[in-house]
Amino acid sequence: MKTMPILIIALMFTVSCYQGVNYDEQGTATGNVDDQQGTTVDLNDEQGAVDKDGFVKDAQGSSGKRKWTFIIYMAADNDLESAAIADFNELEAVNYGAAPISILVLLDRHKDYDMTNGNWSDTRLFEIKPDPNGLNPAFCSSRIDCPELGLSKDSETELNTANPMVLSGLIDFAKRVYPAERYALFIWGHGTGWRGGFNNYNLPEPAKAVAFDDADDNYMSLPSFGRAVDGKGLSVIAFDTCFGALLEVAYQIRNDAELFVGSEGEIMSTGWNYTALFTEFLSKDNFTISDLGNAIQNQFSSQYASRSNATISQIQLHQVNKLFISFNDFSGVVAKAIATEEAKNAVLNQILYHVDRYFFASFPSDMYIDIFDFSKKISAIRGNITSNTIQQNAISDAASKLEEALDLAVPSSWAKNGTAKKIGVHVIPLQGIAVPAASHELAYVRDSMSPDKSAFVEDSEHWAPNYTPKSDSLLDKLFYWNYTR
Fold first, then answer.
1. Are strands 357-358 and 259-262 parallel, antiparallel or unpaired?
2. Which one of 43, 316, 463, 472 is most buried, counting C-beta atoms within 10 A?
3. Could you give the CA distance from residue 267 to residue 80 in angstroms, rounded to a whole number?
4. Per the omega criterion (within 30 degrees of 0), is the bond before 137 cis?
C-alpha cells in the first residue's frame, strides 16, 4: 500500500541573504560565508552556486533564476523500496531542458526488497539529472552532501526518516543551497490515516502517521509532521500516500503552505507517474502553483482511471479553517438532534453502508468518509433523525454552509465515481466490513493523555469523541452515548 510523502519546496531567497560575499571576475559568489542565520555556506560548491544577480546553477547545468525547488522525501526503508526505485527512475526520464527548477530526492532504502543500483541500504540525497537513455532502472543522478543531516556523497549514513528533525533539516538545506521563488514538499511512502488497531510495526499507541522506517521501527506522527513543516515557507505540500486528503491532515498544516494535494483513500504502491507529472508541469509557461496542482491531478486521474474508489484533491489551505468551523458546526447540529437509539441508528446506517467511505481491504482498518457526501446524505434523512422542524431546518442550513465551505477549500478534485469536493474525515477503526471497533484510539480522543493528538482532535468540539462523552459530540452520540438515561 502506498502511503509515504514526497517533498517539493520553493521560497524566495537570493544572494542578498549572505553577509560579506566576494565575487570572482565572472560575478560568481565565492568563499565560505555565514548567512543571516549564522550557517556557514560554501559558495565554491558548483551545486546551487549563487551569483551577485541571484542566478543559480544546478546539477543539470541550468543557470537562471530558479522558480521551484522540489524536495522528494522518499521514506522507503520498508516494503515500498522497489516502488521508490521505480519512481526515482521516472523522475530521471523527464526531459527538463533548461527549466528553472531543481529536484532533490532524499531516498532511504531497505536492505531486503530491491537489489538494484548497488543494493545499498543507507540514506542518500540526490539532485535529479535527466537520463539520456530515458526510462531505465539505473540511476544517473548525482549524490550530494547535506551538512544539516550529516550526509556526505562519499560515505554511508543511515538516517531515521521517521524523525521530524530529518525532514526539517532537509527543508532548511534546500532553502539554503537551492533558493527559489517557491518550494514544494512531496511526502512519498506509507500513510495510514488514523492507525487504529492496525499495528504491523509493533509500535506504541497507534496514531495518524507517515514516513515509516523499518530500521528504526518508527513512524512520523501527524503532529510531528506539522512541527517539521511549521514556518518553512512552503508553497505546496503533496502526499503521494494513502489517506492523505483528510481534514485532520489539512487542518494540521493549514498555515504551512498554500496548496495541499492528496487522496482520500488507498492508492497503489506504484504511487504517482512522475514522468507524466513533471512533463505536463514543464509544458506550462509560468510554473504557477495551480499549474503544479493540475499536473498532479491530471496524471493521477489518467493513471487511476480504471481503479474504483480512486480520488485526488487540491485543497486550498487558507480556506481550511473555515471548512473546519463549518464541519464542526454541522456535526454539532446533528449530534444535538439525535435523542434516541433509532435516530442514532439512522445516522450510523448511512455512515456504515451508504456514504462514500474508504478503508483498507484487510482488517482491522481505519474508516474514513467523504465529508460532502456525508453532509448530503445526513441532510436528506433529517426527518428520520428528528421530528422537530427547527432542528431539521438547522441540519439543512448547516449542510448548505458546509457545502459552501467545501466549494472554497476544494475547488478542484477528481474521483472515479464522478463526485466532487473530495476531502475525508476519520470515523472509527473497523474490525470487518461495517463492524466498528469497540472504541477509538486515545490519539483520537479529546482530553486524553495521548501525546499524539492532532490539532484537529484538540480543537474539534462536535466531531471527535471525548474522554468523558458529551451530548454535543457526534462520535460520542454514535458510539458512546447511553440513551436510557
1. unpaired
2. 463
3. 13
4. no
Per the structure block, which three cell numbers stand in for 197?
488497531
Are 105 and 221 members of one domain? yes
CA 333 – CA 482 distance, rounded (Å): 19
What pLDDT, on the 0 to 100 scale, is given for residue 39?
38
- Cα 455 to Cα 458: distance, rounded to the nearest angstrom: 5
- 281 and 386 together in one domain: no
Q: Specify the DSSP class assigned to residue 188.
A: E
| Domain C-terminal end among 253, 281, 307 | 307
Nearest Cα to Cα of residue 261 among 235, 281, 282:
235
Verify that 288 and 352 share a domain, yes or no.
no
- Structural domain tally of the chain? 2
Contact in structure between 69 and 180 (CB atoms under 8 Å): yes
pLDDT digits (tens, 9 = 90+) for 217-275: 567 889 999 999 999 999 999 999 889 999 999 999 999 999 999 999 988 878 899 99
pTM (2 decimals)? 0.84
- Look at residue 41 in the predicted model and tell me its pLDDT: 39
Question: Sign of dihedral through CA atoms 399, 401, 405, 410?
Answer: positive
Is 458 within 8 Å of 447 (Cβ atoms)?
no
Residue 401 has pLDDT above 60, yes or no: yes
